[in-house]
Amino acid sequence: MRGVAEVKEPCSLPMLSVDMENKENGSVGVKNSLENGRPPDPADWAVMDVVNYFRTAGFEEQANAFQEQEIDGKSLLLMTRNDVLTGLQLKLGPALKIYEYHVKPLQTKHLKNSSS
User: Fold this and answer.
1) What one-character DSSP code corresponds to residue 44?
2) For residues 77 and 110, is the Cβ–Cβ distance under 8 A?
3) Is the sign of the CA dihedral 23, 114, 50, 93 positive or negative?
């Protein structure tokens, strides 16, 4: 029995530190974001985080354009409507949805979080 307890202890320690990090951050959405494998703040996303975000959102085909253009989180937050509609060479329909329902809300949310 003692050997089993020794094995369990190291396994539970990393989980404790992860929980503490989540609580210190104070953001309600942290757990969901971390479960998706992306940092909670889009400004910290790597190119593949952006690509995976759009794949998860149902834009499998369009997600590749973000990878080809090397759009990371900081770039994503700087994108204008015109950048999304013309710079990524996407079809107009998906490009409009990507900007209106994803890029713009991410930018707005980031601005709110940054100012508070």
Assistant:
1) G
2) yes
3) positive
CB atoms within 10 A of CB 34: 15
Is this prediction's pTM over 0.85?
no
The runs of H, that is alpha helices, within the chain are 2-25, 30-35, 47-56, 60-68, 73-78, 81-82, 92-98, 104-115
Distance, in Å, from the CA atom of 69 to the CA atom of 88, rounded to the nearest integer, reads 7
CB 90 within 8 A of CB 62: yes
Tokens describing residue 20: 């503490």
At 92-114, the pLDDT tens digits run 999 999 999 999 999 999 999 88
Q: Which two tokens stand for residue 114?
A: 């940054």
Structure tokens at 107: 């930018």
Task: Fill in the amino acid letter for 100.
Answer: E
